[in-house]
From TrEMBL:
Domain VOC: 172-285
Taxonomic lineage of the native organism: Bacteria, Bacillati, Actinomycetota, Actinomycetes, Kitasatosporales
Signal peptide from the UniProt entry: none
InterPro entries the record matches: Glyas_Bleomycin-R_OHBP_Dase, Glyas_Fos-R_dOase_dom, Glyoxalase_1_CS, VOC_core
Listed Pfam families: Glyoxalase
Name listed for the protein in its UniProt record: VOC family protein
Length: 325
């Protein structure tokens, strides 16, 4: 597992102008997709543990208690990642508009299907990007799921079985991983234009990014021929909830991959294939990082342990037809 510092050339170039520091988004608010059947999506995401939100032209889903939809779906012939929404601190949209102009990014009218407030433009792969005032939903408070491990007995005079949740019910959207045709272009855009910071990378294959201290990664890219959603990932309250969700998805006809512990990010995971070839992840126990974190370029296993990885996990099955919205 050779490790080296992420080479300076890997650093995303932004407009290197000290008079105009690069503003930064504060995280991922959600994503939008087209799917062939909203009814199928409703059943799948409902079983996964998300709650139905807004329902106009789009079908929305969110974690219990979230203030806004974190997934927006529109029916279309093919499954396609359509848009990503990022939060901007209050009062900073104007700074971003000027920064985007200096960066040569053209602001556009929003696509009718996903129209909403804020700034809209496209990334190098053609995915719509929406910047709007707000921040990622922090998730409702999680119960204390302390484990008695090793010499540390954090749960005393409490029976774990009596506190076992009855369903997964994700607390928050953790991260989104996209296949991209041009990894370098994606990195220059999301790093140099939106202000994401590199967390870790594996050569020219994949890279993980964060916007603020917290989870090891909230956004990631993997080279994949053309753009596509690899997976979205949702935090649950602990290992019990993770395995209960996995059990319930399998019982509903959606067996997954896991349990395992990832390499980069270290989260415990199980993945479930969605009805259209992407994946959706339950996670818990992801590495937390601060501004002191130093990114590495490291050939780290996808999973430190767990069942063999399904071949389909690294196949981009998303249609590469142009996104028509
Ligand atoms: Fe993930």
């Amino acid at each position: 597992m050779p490790s080296r510092s992420a080479a300076p050339s890997d650093a995303p170039p932004g407009p290197a102008d000290s008079r105009h520091p690069v503003p930064t988004v504060n995280g991922v608010l959600g994503y939008g997709m087209t799917v062939p059947s909203l009814d199928t999506a409703d059943g799948f995401l409902g079983t996964f543990g998300l709650r139905r939100g807004g329902h106009g032209d789009t079908l929305g889903f969110r974690c219990d208690g979230a203030a806004f939809d974190q997934v927006s779906l529109v029916e279309a012939p093919h499954k396609r990642i359509a848009c990503l929404a990022f939060g901007v601190d209050p009062g900073r949209l104007g700074d971003f508009a000027r920064h985007l102009e200096r960066s040569g990014v053209r602001l556009l009218d929003p696509p009718a299907a996903f129209a909403g407030p804020g700034l809209w433009f496209r990334d190098p792969e053609g995915v719509w990007v929406n910047l709007r005032e707000g921040a990622p939903d922090p998730g409702r408070p999680m119960p204390d799921t302390s484990l008695n491990t090793g010499a540390r007995h954090a749960r005393v005079d409490r029976a774990a079985w009596a506190e076992t949740p009855d369903a997964a019910r994700p607390h928050r959207l953790g991260h989104v991983l996209l296949y991209v045709r041009d990894l370098g272009a994606a990195e220059r855009f999301y790093g140099g234009v939106l202000g994401f910071r590199l967390s870790d990378r594996t050569g020219d294959i994949l890279s993980f990014w964060h916007a603020r201290p917290g989870d090891h990664h909230t956004l990631g890219f993997v080279r994949g021929g053309h753009v596509g959603l690899h997976h979205s990932s949702w935090e649950v309250s602990g290992l019990d909830a993770l395995m209960i969700g996995t059990r319930d998805m399998a019982a509903a006809g959606h067996p997954g991959w896991g349990l395992g512990r990832h390499g980069l990010g270290s989260n415990l995971f199980t993945y479930v294939p969605d009805p259209w070839g992407s994946w959706i992840e339950y996670f818990t126990d992801i590495d937390q990082i601060t501004d002191a974190w130093q990114p590495r370029d490291i050939d780290c296993p996808t999973a430190m342990w767990g069942p063999p990885m399904p071949e389909a996990f690294i196949v981009n099955s998303e249609s590469d037809e142009p996104l028509a919205l």
